[in-house]
From TrEMBL:
It comes from Alosa alosa. Belongs to the Wnt family. This is Protein Wnt. The keyword Lipoprotein applies. It holds the Pfam family wnt. Its main location: secreted.
Amino acid sequence: MSGPKADLTYASSVQAGARRGIQECKQQFAWDLWNCPESALLLTAPGTLRAATRETSFLHAISAAGVMFTLIKNCSLGELANCRCDNSRNRQPGGRGWTWGGCSDNVEFGERISRQYVDAFETGQDSRAQMNLHNNEAGRQAVKITMRRVCRCHGLSQSCSLQTCWMQLAEFRDVGNYLKVKHDQAQKLEMDKRRVRAGNSADNRGALADAFSSITRTDLIYLEESPDYCARNLSLGLHGTEGRECLQNSDSLSQWERRSCQRLCHECGLRVEQRRVETSSSCNCRFHWCCTVICDTCTQVTIKHFCTRKHPGYHRRRNRVKSMR
């Protein structure tokens, strides 16, 4: 992952950031019809077309966010050359009972290098390239929006009569949660194909600028409706929901997780099958002189639920994809 303007010094951080984004994508969509499958995880390379769905918009945003987040984090840890924390706020006034100080995370650095690497893939001037660039930027904005002010108290016996504050990255899970909401609220951009054609003409650029002018930098956008994620379609890299695990009957689950069997199985014309799953692990370990550790092997039986086919002749409900929104 590198662009012509990118400094290869940061390549390992960029790669780690892309992996961070992918892991978060899988976490956020673990119990959705589209679960961030491996077929969707390669960032677009020049000359490669990919679906322009709302799921793709999230993937671009979370990948760009992951790269930016990791660059900033590694900069603050002192692991990157030519990068230092941001103390520009220290010359600005604070608030009542607190003042800017310390060393804020360097957002400008992470944003700049992330843009050089990630945006370098989008060399076209068509609507698909502009959509990807927009969603990349929305991901970077999510990192900035979720940052938090962190303060340290001063005063006798830490009475906190005065605080020194700086800006710090939130947890990346907060970034993922923010972008998942943006995914659910993503806007479909209706392009006039008679005006916008693939190419580099000034007319095309003007038409694209008009189309994107009403979209804020923090919103995700898409061009195409999502396919039927219930159905197996190997040409699109979709495996359907048959065989997928779902969750139910546990107080520790969120409402979204508890409804996963309804969403993944019933709404896709499948039934829920309960299975007993045995897992083996080491247990009762003890130290034996000298110098080995001896463990027993314990087997634990858990109940899991999976989507499986209904009896022959069952016709599943149509228009199910719309219900995932």
